[in-house]
Specification:
single chain, Four Helix Bundle (Hemerythrin (Met), subunit A), globular
Length: 168
C-alpha cells in the first residue's frame, strides 16, 4: 500500500508540473472572472495545501503516530496567500514558486516515506484548531488527499489555460 500510494503521489505531482511546463508566463496571472485563483494561483493554492499536510504529518510523527493536535494556521498568512493566488504569478515568480512547490512536495513525500507500513495506514485523531472533534487521519490519507488535490487541478489548470488562449 505505501509504495503504491507514494508512486501515485509522485505521478500526480509530475502531472501538475507537466501541465504548467508549457504555459507561457503571461498566462499565469490570468484570473477568469468569478474564479478564486489565477492560473498560476493554483500553484500558490497547492503550496498552501502542502504546508498544511506537512504540518499534519510532522505532528502525527512527533506524537508517535497517535492522536494529536494538528497545525494551526496563521490567518494573515492564509489571507496573503489567497490574495497572491488571485493575482497569480509574475514572470519573476515562476521559477522560485515552482521550486518551492517541488521542495515542499519532496518534504511531504519524505515524511510519508518515514512511516513504516503499519504506521502508514494507522488512523489517528487529529484535532485542528476550531474543530469540535478529532479528524480521522493517517499518513496514507494525507498522501491520498494531496494526490487527489494535484489530480483535480490538472484539468482545472488546462481548462483555464484553454480559455486564456481563446480570449487573447
Amino acid at each position: 500500500m505505501k509504495s503504491e500510494s507514494l508512486a501515485r503521489l509522485e505521478a500526480a505531482h509530475g502531472s501538475i508540473q507537466d501541465t504548467f511546463a508549457t504555459m507561457p508566463d503571461a498566462a499565469l496571472a490570468w484570473l477568469k472572472p468569478g474564479d478564486d485563483y489565477a492560473i498560476g494561483g493554483i500553484v500558490i493554492h497547492l503550496i498552501q495545501s502542502l504546508d498544511g499536510y506537512i504540518g499534519t504529518l510532522e505532528a502525527v510523527r512527533a506524537a508517535g503516530f497517535t492522536d494529536t493536535d494538528g497545525p494551526g494556521e496563521d490567518e494573515a498568512k492564509v489571507d496573503a496567500q489567497l490574495v497572491h493566488a488571485r493575482r497569480g504569478l509574475a514572470p519573476t515568480e515562476r521559477a522560485p514558486t515552482f521550486a518551492d512547490m517541488r521542495a515542499k512536495h519532496a518534504r511531504l513525500a519524505a515524511l510519508a516515506a518515514t512511516a513504516d507500513e503499519g504506521q502508514f495506514g494507522t488512523l489517528v485523531g487529529v484535532r485542528y484548531p476550531g474543530d469540535e472533534a478529532p479528524y480521522p487521519t493517517s499518513v496514507a490519507l494525507v498522501v491520498q488527499w494531496m494526490t487527489e488535490h494535484y489530480a483535480e487541478h490538472v484539468p482545472h489548470a488546462q481548462q483555464l489555460f484553454a480559455e486564456w488562449k481563446n480570449g487573447r
